[in-house]
Design goal:
The radius of gyration of chain A is 21 Å and the shape is globular. By secondary structure, chain A is an alpha/beta fold. Chain A has 2 domains: about 250 residues, 3-Layer(aba) Sandwich (Rossmann fold), CATH 3.40.50; about 70 residues, no CATH class. An 8-stranded mixed beta sheet of chain A has the order 6-7-8-3-9-10-12-11, sandwiched between helices. In chain A, strands 2-1-4-5 form a 4-stranded antiparallel beta sheet, covered by helices on one side. Chain A is built from 12 helices and 12 strands. In chain A, a hairpin with a 4-residue loop joins strand 1 and strand 2. In chain A, helix 4 packs parallel to helix 6. In chain B, helix 3 packs across helix 4 and helix 4 crosses helix 5. In chain B, the strands form 2 sheets. Chain B has an 8-stranded mixed beta sheet, with helices on both faces. In chain B, strands 2-1-4-5 form a 4-stranded antiparallel beta sheet. Chain B has a domain of about 200 residues: Rossmann fold (3-Layer(aba) Sandwich), CATH 3.40.50.300. In chain B, strand 1 and strand 2 form a beta hairpin. Classes of the chains: A alpha/beta (about 325), B alpha/beta (about 325). Chains A and B meet through helix 7, helix 8, helix 9 and helix 10 of A and helix 6, helix 7 and helix 9 of B.
Chain lengths: ~325, ~325
């Protein structure tokens, strides 16, 4: 039953601000299979969070807008769903974990109450004692003593608050979990604990996950497939083996790997990507990475590259448009 | 042999809280030789930023001593201290809150000169500012811009230019790249390493990122709850970590390499204990997988166990 759970087709999202129209997501295509973890990697402003918020239909009212494209979740077209439909879906079929655990919990409600809330909303038949029992179960599932359910968020540390958020997100055993930088605000030893819990529960409940992160290490250790996002587009996508072990890559992916100091190698200098991300208020005619790309060609500035597939590996770059050019790249690419 | 550029002796900083003394920095001894980079690594709340700020006397230490070039400056008057501050500078973590939003980039970089009067005359100051902007790779067209017009990477370049404008010899770099995206982080790290080499600067580089610290440092100090638990050269520390906390820290880093995907994980349980009035004994004891009764009796002293490799743990006594 390895079929598609989430399918995003040609998604375009804009934000209308006072000054300009911001093109946040520009033609994203992706699929997540049942039980699969897809890592979405990219830098600030790449459109990762916007993509996730579109699936939740939580884009800021009147500002963010899905201009084009379809999102199918378990066969249902999210872009056409009514607000009432969405309320039944959120927390029940798809949940989201946000980066900052402090601001995603209500400071004046006991944590047990916050976990119970989502249970009650989606199961009106549950009795009070059943809800209580389930809250205790969930607390223990995420490694918190159930006696602490009467405490308030400020009495918990960052890592424990994130555990509460995970308990809320998984309370109704959703089919899809959107985890938006779930451990970025945490220390590395606590990050390891939280990621272990997410992995374990995901396995147990057979939940699919979209894991948004900027940390390639987290991707390598937690994901089945990876999508690399740049300036609102997915520039490369494939299995973790495609991304971490294959030779051919989008120049942006190469730059991303060159920017992180490797613990296992001694290198004198990092090889960063020069320049900055393009202005998101200007729609690029060609490849969004053109300005910063060390291997750019004339065609890249004028024509959008197609998504070139090689098995499970997709690269959206003119260098790979045909075989001849791809052979050329390997020589240039080995710097 | 000359004295180390910066040295602390049993440096202590306690903060008074309603519930007792918070031990932020607890008897830290360190030496930084001229032209070297000391990496200080640890998790949030371990006292690494307080250590940096205390060395600059931005907060006054509770006890111990700090020496610059072999001379203690704890008793310096404000005037003497201002003179010394030309030599010791700091770069802050957050390039958003550490720049005055009402000053232009030119004014921000010129401010230390105006305060310390190292250069006089408007023209000479302007020239110096432009020289600094070139040095840190900031386009001259930004001189009249305000911080909000700049992205994080450029702002951090302003922070670096401001720290360098007085031509200091020692800089405390307090998580200078943590707020930046990886591609920008790499640009700033390269810039800082180039400047360090070309100008013979000495850095104390504070970070929570072990791969960054390994990349930039000549010597690394691992801190846990105000104390130095282990220190060694980078290769030695990463090849042969001794303190159980260092081992746990190295184990917890996610590696961007599939060969680590199925490694056996040893994730340490629990969280950092309360730094207010800590019990005697090793601060890590409550989370340590190899704890024994001995650990709870007294603070384990920092001992040299190999060449330049120090560790504070009862396992290596």
């Amino acid at each position: 039953m390895n079929d598609v759970l989430l399918s995003i087709e040609n998604l375009h999202v804009t934000y209308r601000t006072d000054e300009a129209l911001v093109y946040a997501v520009n033609g994203v295509n992706l699929n997540i299979m049942r039980g699969e973890t897809l890592g979405l990697v990219g830098e600030t402003g790449a459109g990762k969070t916007t993509t996730a918020l579109s699936v939740m239909r939580l884009l800021p009212d009147k500002i963010g807008k899905i201009e084009q494209g379809k999102i199918y979740l378990d066969g249902l077209d999210i872009t056409a769903a009514t607000e009432a439909d969405m309320r039944a879906i959120r927390g029940n079929i798809v949940s989201m974990i946000f980066q900052d655990p402090m601001s995603s919990l209500n400071p004046v409600l006991r944590v047990g109450e916050q976990i119970a809330e989502v249970l009650r909303i989606h199961n009106d038949k549950l009795s009070k004692s059943e809800v209580d029992r389930r809250v205790d179960e969930l607390m223990e599932m995420v490694g918190l003593p159930k006696e602490r359910k009467v405490e308030y968020p400020h009495q918990f540390s960052g890592g424990m608050k994130q555990r509460v958020v995970i308990a809320i997100a998984l309370a109704c055993e959703p089919k899809l979990l959107l985890a938006d930088e779930p451990t970025t605000a945490l220390d590395v030893t606590i990050q390891a604990q939280v990621l272990a819990i997410i992995r374990e529960l995901k396995e147990m409940l057979n939940t699919s996950m979209l894991l948004i992160t900027h940390d390639l290490g987290i991707v390598a250790e937690n994901c089945d497939r990876v999508a690399v996002m740049y300036a609102g587009e997915i520039v490369e996508m494939g299995t973790v083996e495609d991304i971490f072990e294959e030779k051919d890559h989008h120049p942006y992916t190469v730059g991303l790997f060159g920017s992180i100091p490797d613990l296992d190698k001694n290198i004198d200098r990092l090889t960063p990507i020069e320049g900055m991300m393009p202005d998101p208020t200007v729609l690029q005619a060609g490849c969004p990475f053109y300005d910063r790309c060390p291997q750019r060609m004339d065609i890249c500035n004028t024509e959008k590259p197609a998504e070139v597939m090689k098995g499970t590996h997709m690269i959206k770059c003119h260098l790979f448009s045909n075989v001849e050019k791809a052979a050329n790249v390997e020589k240039v690419g080995e710097v | 042999m000359s004295a180390p550029l910066i040295e602390t002796r049993k440096l202590v900083k306690y903060f008074t809280t309603p519930r007792g003394a918070l031990h932020a920095v607890d008897k830290v001894d360190l030496k930084i030789e001229r032209g070297q980079v000391l990496g200080v690594v640890g998790e949030s709340g371990c006292g690494k930023s307080t250590l940096g700020r205390t060395i600059l006397r931005l907060t006054e230490p509770t006890g111990g001593d700090i020496l610059y070039d072999g001379v203690s400056y704890l008793k310096y008057s404000e005037k003497e201290m201002n003179e010394l501050r030309k030599k010791i500078q700091i770069i802050f973590q957050d390039p958003y809150s550490s720049l005055n939003p009402r000053m232009t980039i030119g004014q921000i970089i010129a401010e230390p000169i105006k305060v310390c009067k190292t250069i006089t005359g408007k023209k000479a100051i302007d020239e110096k500012v432009l020289e600094m902007m070139d040095l840190v790779g900031l386009s001259r067209r930004w001189i009249n811009a305000y911080p909000h017009e700049l992205d994080g990477g450029r702002r951090q370049r302003v922070g670096i230019a401001r720290a360098l404008v007085l031509e200091p010899s020692f800089i405390v770099c307090d998580e200078p790249v943590s707020a930046l995206d990886v591609s920008i982080q790499a640009q700033i790290l390269n810039l800082m390493m180039d400047l360090q080499r070309d100008m013979g600067l000495t850095y104390m580089f504070i970070t929570h990122d072990l791969s960054v610290v390994k990349h930039i440092s000549n010597y690394i100090m691992v801190m846990y709850l105000g104390q130095c638990v282990e220190s060694a050269a980078p290769e030695e520390l990463f090849k042969n970590p001794l303190h159980p906390y260092t081992v746990a820290l190295l184990n917890a880093i996610p590696r961007p390499n599939l060969s680590f995907r199925n490694r056996e994980r040893k994730i340490i349980k629990g969280e950092v204990t309360n730094p207010i009035n800590p019990k005697p004994g090793c601060r890590f004891a409550s989370r340590c997988p190899r704890v024994s009764d001995k650990c709870l009796q007294q603070d384990p002293p920092l001992k040299e166990v190999g060449q330049n490799h120090m560790v504070a743990c009862t396992l290596y006594e």
